[in-house]
């Protein structure tokens, strides 16, 4: 199997476009190194064909993995956003209940004071 001296793409991408460019650049560099390596070593046709197939498989796997990472990140972001929205909704509901009960208590106190004067 062909060994590539190229580093793997980053596991967590800040943005899909930046990471895609890095993957494409890495793939291009790996292909260039592979072609240069084959010319210098005089490898037989079978070895070159296997190395080329391995490179194609590795490239396809990187692209597949990258798209899965992007999908997972998107899903997690959506989940975290929904969780935060539920917390905000719960807090707002509790604040409204607290505000209305405080308002009710103040109205009762005011009514009690006013009834003393009547």
Map the helices and strands.
Layout: H1 16-41, H2 45-117
Helix pairs in contact: 1-2
Can you tell me about this structure?
Residues 28-50 have a biased composition (Basic and acidic residues). This is IQ motif containing E. Pfam families: IQ. Residues 1-11 have a biased composition (Pro residues). Residues 1-50 are annotated as: Disordered. With 118 residues, this protein is an all-alpha fold. It has one domain (16-117). Helices cover 84% and strands 0% of the residues. The chain contains 2 helices and no strands. The chain has helices at residues 16-41, 45-117. Helix 1 (16-41) packs antiparallel against helix 2 (45-117). The protein is rod-shaped, with a radius of gyration of 32 Å. It starts with 15 loop residues before the first helix and ends with a helix. The mean pLDDT is 77.
Descriptive key words:
single chain, mainly alpha, rod-shaped, IQ motif containing E, IQ_motif_EF-hand-BS
Shape type? rod-shaped
Q: How many domains make up the 3D coordinates?
A: 1
Distance between the termini: 98 Å
How big is the Rg?
Answer: 32 Å
Q: Roughly what is the average pLDDT, rounded to an integer?
A: 77
Enumerate the spans where pLDDT stays under 50 for 5 or more consecutive residues.
none
Region (Disordered): 1-50
Protein name: IQ motif containing E
Biased composition (Basic and acidic residues): 28-50
Organism: Iconisemion striatum
């Amino acid at each position: 199997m062909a060994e590539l001296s190229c580093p793997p793409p980053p596991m967590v991408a800040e943005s899909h476009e930046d990471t895609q460019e890095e993957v494409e650049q890495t793939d291009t560099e790996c292909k260039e190194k592979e072609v240069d390596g084959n010319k210098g070593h005089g490898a037989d046709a079978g070895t070159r064909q296997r190395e080329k197939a391995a490179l194609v498989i590795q490239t396809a796997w990187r692209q597949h993995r990258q798209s899965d990472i992007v999908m997972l990140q998107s899903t997690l972001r959506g989940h975290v956003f929904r969780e935060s929205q539920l917390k905000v909704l719960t807090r707002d509901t509790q604040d409204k209940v607290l505000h209305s009960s405080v308002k009710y208590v103040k109205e009762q106190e005011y009514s009690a004071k006013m009834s003393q004067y009547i």
